[in-house]
Design goal:
By secondary structure, the protein is mostly helical. It contains twelve helices and four strands, in the order ββααααααααββαααα.
Amino acid sequence: MNKVEICGVNTSKLPVLSNKKMRELLRKMREGDKAAREELVQGNLRLVLSVIQRFNNRGEYVDDLFQVGCIGLMKAIDNFDLSQNVKFSTYAVPMIIGEIRRYLRDNNPIRVSRSLRDVAYKALQVRDSLVQKYGKEPTIGEIAAELHIPQEEIVYALDAIQEPISLFEPIYHDGGDPIYVLDQIGDERTLDSEWLEGISIRESLQHLSEREKLILTLRFFEGRTQMEVAEEIGISQAQVSRLEKAALKHMRRYISPN
């Protein structure tokens, strides 16, 4: 009942460690106790599970994400500073997320040059170290100063390694229909004003005679010249020109009545 296996691990039976137990195991691990380290990993696998749920819509295998998340967890365990007054989960979650994001970037189908990736990864490492040092998010300028690289190059590199997202990825859900990325993208070709204008044109066409409608359809919807229209309907080009102007004038009264 409620059993879900990931990488052969029964997630329903994963242990949960108290903060006191965590710090006790961390001290033992620092003293060289390998069993304590293993217990720390097992006791924080639920943390990995909670993190990988954020990446469920990327089309990746859950087992793969779980294994990569475990690498981030082990890095967090090995590097956690007990002297800092910070909960382990607060420190570990960004480490796990960072590891998963690196994995997703490396497996991105869009190829990014090695030099760009190197700049981006160095920038991310500096960013993590500055966050730990000062407890706040550094600016691009601060990262650039640490690496002695122009800010523009860092921004370009970080943009290059961003993984693409689906147009159908939900970005908001209030219990009803979700809002997708696609819904937030503007399209100048489908503006409401143009849509309404199209309706007005179609309605105004209904007030024309059959010959006038045929002339405007051939001229403006099929791209015919006045000479070609004249030949098709058997009248002179001068007559086509006169009927066309009269029809357009007639239509304007319905499109712009004022």
